Structures are given as structure tokens and as C-alpha cells.
């Protein structure tokens, strides 16, 4: 249930981005004078509205979490860590708990990640240390 | 690494995920916009108008070869969002790195819909005259020069750190030496008039932050004024005789050789002069900094003990033979390049016996300062067996390459001796 809810929440969270400002989310250049005049949205916008029904009813059973190994915290890491960059950035690492804590601080303080409430933070860090910790 | 085609054949949905970060809709047609779509669009060199009707798992025809980004070839992708890709050492064998083989280090999302005619560069801050220049203005007002210049990512070689250091796990190939054409940064700064008290530059580009927050910059670094005034730095608009590649900063970028690649701002829009060390994103904290004194591997070094990396260290790369080669003859010609952020290379030595004995390689002079220098050596293997070919360069300051990594917390500056393994069966 928890799993279903989180996946649902993830899609829900991505809806505004889908409907309104997908360009802004991923690709819009800063509104400097030159980009403001150039045509940055040459892509046709018609027919862009996502099919809510299908997006929301996504069956999560065959969802692979971008290759995150299953385990406690898998959804939380997927939901919190794949918005800005791909999870490849996470999956390349092998770090101590202390370094993971520092990375999460850096995400929040410098990169604009919303800070996680303590239980979720714990879950995320434990998952990262378990699966992407220091090699023995 | 599996080829794109193999990847798609094995599991199309997984391939979509891994390569483009696309999330399929329930009906398996189209994919969520945002992340994957822009990466895919960039990969094809244009946006995809009818992506909603593109079944997930279908390789767009433009990607059907083993090529992920148009105009790039043979790179190893460490990440697709943001794009980070390096070149296997044996594909860096050319004396001048072809654009297709030049590594990519993106910190954010490259600008889309770049318009060369409307592009503007502002030079401001502590200057006598603020400049606001188009690329045409740059070409008209300043001497246009072409130089072979090495750009190397500060984190090149990070993958070999033990304990590991965070960031993209570059192995050897986040380095290249292309022919860059542009105007001298020094000439432009002189025209602006370096103001009293200016000690540092600050560079800005048109790429956007991964979070989508328009008030955040992905990266903005700078260099001391003395380095900025070095005549070898360019504001470049051409790479190997053609306009810059989109992933290498088109239409305008800095090329400041000798320092970590991150100071060579891509998609350059602004250079401002400051009366303090620049404190933009990735200038502060642990980014592009290393301990001022040697530390034991794994040490937690406090921020105060870290200093901004300036000159990149002396280094060499064997580009032929390819590591893992199975040889059937006793004689072999070796080729490679050597470079240093602190001056010319004055010797390269080769060993095939794990460093017990060394012989001099034939070393060419640099085409211009900060170009890499090529070396060649002919070696004889006495008997069949497993060999490692090691190369070790020395620069004119007397510094040469170490055998072990001088460990630092963020995995920078790995210039340890390059080792290529071969088996010989005569």
C-alpha cells in the first residue's frame, strides 16, 4: 500500500510539471535577453496535455525504479533523488555514511532539494549506505 | 558497455530508462515529458514533435547506430541527465582530438534553441568600459587565433580513488586537445580595461540548473586576474574548424587551459571582474578544492584546509596500444600524449617491467603552449607473457608523475602513471 501510494504521489507530483511548465522544469534557458527573443519553444505544444488516467493508473508492479535494488527506502530514494538528475549519479557512488550525509546536506543547501523530514532522511541514508556504501 | 542497439534489444523499457530516463506511460506510448524528453531531443540534435505517439522502447531512427548524441562517437556515458561522457584512451590516439571524441562534462541543462546571431557576451564588474558584444563583434574587433589546447576535467581519474570519492566516476578520458578558434580573453579584458582592485574573474553561462529553478546557476567559476591575462586563453566560437558542438558549449565558450576544465565556462554569456575570489556555485565548499597538505586516504578534511585547485598536474596517456590487446609480435610501437598545467613536457619514459627499468620515448615539441605533446616509442618484448606498459612524463618544473594517487576527498588531480596491459604470444 505504502509502495502504491508513493508511486502515485510521484506521478501526482510530476503532474504540474507535465501540464504547465515542462520546458521550465527541464530545459528552459534563463530568461536572458537573447533567449527571450529567440524562439525557445519551437516544439509544437498542441496535444501535450498528458493522459491523466493512464499516468495515474500506472501499474507499479513492473516498475523498475531505474535499477535501484529493492529494499527499504527504495521508493523514497527514487522519488526524492531522480527529479533533478538521473539515478546514475547516485548509482556510481560508494560512500561512507558521513559522506552520504554531507552529500544530502549539499543537495539541500546548495542544489535546492527540499529537506527530508527526519524519518524519511533516515530511510534514505540507510538505503544509500546499504546499497551504495563503502565497498568492504 | 553494451551498445545502444543491444541495450534496446535486451529490454526496451529498461533501455528507455537507463539511456534517456524516459518513464513510459501506462499505455506504453509516449513518455513523461521533462527529464527524458529533453535528453532524447538533444541526443537527436532536435526536439521530437510527436513524442506522444512514439512507443516506448522504439529506438528513434537517428539513434539506431551506436551513437547517443549527434556528432559524438565512441564515448562512454557516465550519466545521461546531466550528460557526462568520457573517451576511452585508445580513441584519443589522434594528435588533435576530433570533436566527436571530445568528452562532455555538463553540470546543468544546456540551453536549447541557441541563436548564434543574437548571442551576447557581457564583460562587466570592475572594468573601465562595460562591453556588450555579439559573436560578430568579437570577430571584428579582436584578432582571431587558432590554438591546440588541452581541456581536462579536474576529476579525471576519480574512478581509481580508494576509498572512492563522490562525483562522476571518470576513468582516464575526461581530457582532450582540440583546435580552438576564437579571440584572446586577454584582448577582450584589455579592451574593457581591468579596473583598480580587480583580482578575480567570474564566468557565467546560459545552461540552467538541474532543479529548474531559474534563480540558480549550475556552475559559475573564475580564475585569478593574472591567469585570465595569460595570452593562451581563448573566448572560442570554433572547434576543429567548425562551430562548437552543442555539448561543448555552442555557440561561445571559454578555453582556459592548464586549470581544471570547469573554469572554461560553456555557453558563455558573461565575464565579470571582482575584487574578491569569486564565490559562485562550485567555487566554494569542497568543489574543485584539494587539501593544502597531503592526507591519508579516507581523511575527513575540514573545508578550511582545502584550497582552490589552480594548475593541473603533469600527466601522460598511452593511446596505442589499447589496454587488453593480445599481441602476436615481439616489437610494438607505442603512441601517446603528455601535458602539464605548469609548462612544457621535457621527457616521457616508458617501462614494460613494472617500473624496474625505463627507456626514453621520442617526444615532440608542442604545437603551441598548452597543446599536448606526442610521444612515440618502439619496444621489444623479450619473451611471451603478460606485460604492463607504463608511461611517465616530466615537465619543465621537474615535476613528474607519481605511481600512487595522492588521495584527496573529492577525487581530483589523479595524475598517477598510466598503465596499459597487454599479452604477448610470440
Describe the structure.
The complex is a heterodimer of chains A (136) and B (426). By secondary structure, chain A is mainly α. Chain A has a domain of 72 residues: Cytochrome Bc1 Complex, Chain D, domain 2 (Orthogonal Bundle), CATH 1.10.760. Chain A contains 8 helices and no strands. Chain A is globular. Chain A starts with a helix and ends with a helix. The relative contact order of chain A is 0.13. Chain B is mainly beta. Chain B folds into 3 domains: 66 residues, no CATH class; 189 residues, Sulfite Oxidase, Chain A, domain 2; 110 residues, Immunoglobulin-like (Sandwich). In chain B, 11% of the residues lie in helices and 29% in strands. In chain B, the strands form 6 sheets. In chain B, strands 6, 7, 9, 10 and 11 form a 5-stranded antiparallel beta sheet that branches. Chain B has a 5-stranded mixed beta sheet with strand order 16-23-22-18-19, with no helix packed on it. In chain B, strand 4 and strand 5 form a beta hairpin. In chain B, helix 1 packs across helix 2. The longest helix of chain B is centred in the first third of the chain and has 10 residues. Chain B starts with a helix and ends with a strand. The N terminus of chain B is likely disordered.
